[in-house]
Amino acid sequence: MVVGALGVALLCAITPYNDLRLQNTFLYGNHLPIGGLCLFALLAMAVNPWLARHRPSLALGRGELLLIWVMLTCGAGLASSGLWRYLAPMVVAPAYFAGAGRRWLELFHDAPNWLLVTRDPESPLARWFYHGLPSGQWVPWEAWIRVTVAWGVAFGCMVAISIGVCALFRGQWVRRERLAFPLAQLPLQIVGSESGRPGLVRQRTFWAGCALVVILHSISTVHHFIPSF
After folding, report:
1. What is the pLDDT of residue 82?
2. Per-residue pLDDT tens digits for 28-46
3. How far apart are alpha carbons 135 and 184 in whole angstroms?
4. pTM of the predicted protein model
5. In terms of Cα–Cα distance, which of 68, 58, 50, 66 is closest to 7?
6. Residues 164-184: pLDDT tens digits?
7. pLDDT tens by residue, 136-157
8. Nearest Cα to 43, choosing from 71, 18, 68, 76?
9. Contact by Cβ (8 Å): 14, 35
10. In angstroms, rounded to a whole number, what is the distance separating the alpha carbons of residues 12 and 5?
């Protein structure tokens, strides 16, 4: 639980900077989240084997690794397409674009104030979100904390409902329909099977495939920065 929570906190801190500031490939903007997958692969295929050899008492079991994967997949995604990528502009855009003739702000006429950061089209809160903070200006945490906490409570209720629905239909999905759950297949292959079959980390064909992909992407990356290559 501690390792998973630390991983979620790390990815949540890195993701907005990576996605919005550096505008790199989204860490959680695809069907297989590369941010969580990279951290999980590093833990399961490098750190944990080292612990198993040198510090067996600290090595993580199969179930513990899969728990960490679930935490990284669900928890860290909240900083990206799981919540924040769409929530952040949604609470500012109605006021910011009201001056451009958009009538979105009228839709929130009877809504509580905690749904939006501001209702004033001239508010610096809306302008700073899209144009950046002026030099020396502190982030207006007070306005954002109020909205984040309020939306967090609402979103927490949605998560609880989703978990409850999954618990109700789990038997139907797993035993009768036998769904494959694609997001679970790769981590299951990495950690190995319950019968003791080794995971991908001990298969030469897997490492050969990894090497091929790394070489090809390295060539493309170098070419991006050095076109003559």
Report:
1. 83
2. 877 788 888 889 989 988 8
3. 46
4. 0.77
5. 68
6. 999 999 999 989 999 888 888
7. 888 888 888 888 898 889 889 9
8. 68
9. yes
10. 10
Structure tokens at 28: 């959680």
19 and 168 in contact (C-beta within 8 Å)? no
In the prediction, which pLDDT does 209 show?
92
Which tens digits make up the pLDDT trace of 42-94?
998 889 889 988 998 888 888 899 999 989 988 888 888 888 888 888 888 88
Tokens 């981590």 belong to: 187
Give the per-residue SS3 of the chain.
Answer: CHHHHHHHHHHHHHHHHHHHHCCCCCCCCCCCCHHHHHHHHHHHHHHHHHHHHHCHHHCCCHHHHHHHHHHHHHHHHHHCCCCHHHHHHHCCHHHHHHHHCCCHHHHHCCCCHHHCCCCCCCCHHHHHHHHCCCCCCCCCHHHHHHHHHHHHHHHHHHHHHHHHHHHHHHHHHHHHCCCCCHHHHHHHHHHCCCCCCCCHHHCHHHHHHHHHHHHHHHHHHHHHHCCCC
Cβ partners under 8 Å of residue 55, min gap 6: none
pLDDT band at 11 (very low <50, low <70, confident <90, very high): very high
Cβ-in-10-Å burial (0-12, 13-18, 19+) of 95 comes to buried
Amino acid letter, 178? R
217: left (phi over 0), alpha (psi -120 to 50) or beta: alpha
What is d(CA 145, CA 205) in angstroms, rounded to the nearest whole number? Answer: 49
